[in-house]
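Q: Convert this sequence to structure tokens.
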Amino acid sequence: MTTKLRIGTGIALVTQRDPIVTAKVVSSIDQLCGGRFLFGVGNGWNQDEIENHGTDFESRHKLARERIEAMKTIWAEEEPEYHGEFVNFDKMKQWPKPAQKPHPPIIVGGASLCRAARDPLRRRLDSRATTGWRRDGIGVVIDQFRKMATEAGRDPATLPDQHLPRARQDRRACASARRSASTASSSPCRRRRKTSILPILDRWAELQRQLNGE
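A:
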């Protein structure tokens, strides 16, 4: 129905998902939407929920890193295999591969700078999704993210900062995010009838034209 709109997860808790199954799901969605999928991931904060999935709360960041590494291997190789502390599988085959090469952008979600952002996981991420309720401002989060990217040997200019969930249809709020160097905003689009969704999309389009001075 569309040619430009992107679809993404906000967010997929990789600490609570099997990496082989998740890799298959991501590939399938990316194929179905013509390479417009954004893979938003997170490590989780709800200890009870995480432990109900059989994950140790204290080691969840390392688990998330291994699962992301394993999925990237599955997407990139014809006969992938992975051997880590938490994730282990011998040579296997899985299709389809994602439409985007080598895989959809992997965007880490969260307003706080958890330990996951300081370990080698940051070398494998394509962007950072930040929420809008930081009392010290979204710019603080973005500055910290860029500093960590530099420390990890990544060029911050190649990692677009995303100000993703809960964007309001408000010109002042969007202009503020843009001044903070956020390169993109998005808003949850709940399941509604076409008669409700189309006016919402029209208002976003008009807001974009206003911000671009058109």
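Residues 194-211 form the longest helix (18 residues).
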